[in-house]
Amino acid sequence: MHKDVEKILVSEEVIQHRIDGLAKKVLEKGEDNIMIVVLLKGALVFAADLFRRMPVMLDLECLNVSSYHGGMESSGVVKFLDNTMPNFEGKRVVVVDDIYDTGLTMKSVCDKIEKSGALSVESCVLLAKDKKHDVEYEPDYVGFTIGDEFVIGYGLDYKGKYRNLPYIGVLKEEAI
Ligand code: IMP
Ligand code: MG
Q1: From the CA of 110, which ligand is nearest?
Q2: In CATH, what number is assigned to the domain containing residue 103?
């Protein structure tokens, strides 16, 4: 375990097993016209494991969005950092993010893609915080529901660090 980690919330093994199930669920709904849209940078690790479990023809796109700006709380504003957007027309878009917190990021992204001519838009998150979200929206696929606490690892960062840990963990007080 990393020296800054207080406890492991979800182990590498448990994450990997759960992703098998998530990939299956997405494919059960259909295998055609899938476009995976990865929200950078947090969802990079999760999306890489998820879409490698989908042995079908699919498209992959990334969107650069930012709401936390490196700290421990949502700024309340979702920034789209790309100059151009992918072509979503005729696609069954599956937006992939690391964690569903206030819900603002996923809701903003899905709304935007829906207005851009996608066939349909679904959302898939590894984690969802068990709290009252700021928006009326529920992700379609959730890996794990966790308490309302700040977590790092498996793509999730604190000030840009810890994304490379293979598990989801909680930081020690002294590391913050
Ligand atoms: P939302 O817009 O509040 O739902 O926040 C979603 C984004 O905030 C995620 O894509 C993460 O990048 C970031 N985030 C939310 N909670 C955490 C956390 O506990 N640790 C690290 N990043 C988080
Ligand atoms: Mg993020």
Answers
A1: 1
A2: 3.40.50.2020
Residue with the bigger pLDDT between 79 and 22: it is 22
From the CA of 6, how far away is ligand 2's center (Å)? 22
Q: At 116, give phi and psi (nearest 5°).
A: -100, 20
Task: Write out the two tokens for 105.
Answer: 């990021």
Question: Which amino acid type is present at position 143?
Answer: G
CA distance 85 to 1: 39
| 2 within some domain | no
Q: Whole-angstrom Cα distance, residue 125 to residue 42?
A: 11
Is the shortest distance between the CB of 154 and ligand 1 below 6 Å? Answer: no
Task: Indicate the number of domains in the chain.
Answer: 1
Lowest mean pLDDT among 13-22, 43-52, 73-82: 73-82
Q: Which domain holds residue 91?
A: 12-148
C-alpha–C-alpha distance, residues 26 and 24, integer Å: 6
- 106 within domain boundaries: yes
- On whether the pTM is more than 0.90, the answer is yes
Whether 73 is covered by a domain: the verdict is yes
| Residue 41 in tokens | 């940078």
Is the beta carbon of 42 within 6 A of some atom in ligand 1? yes
Contact 151, 168 (CB under 8 A): yes
**160 in a structural domain:** no
- Beta-carbon contacts of residue 60 (< 8 Å; ≥ 6 apart): 35, 36, 38, 51
Active site residue 98: no
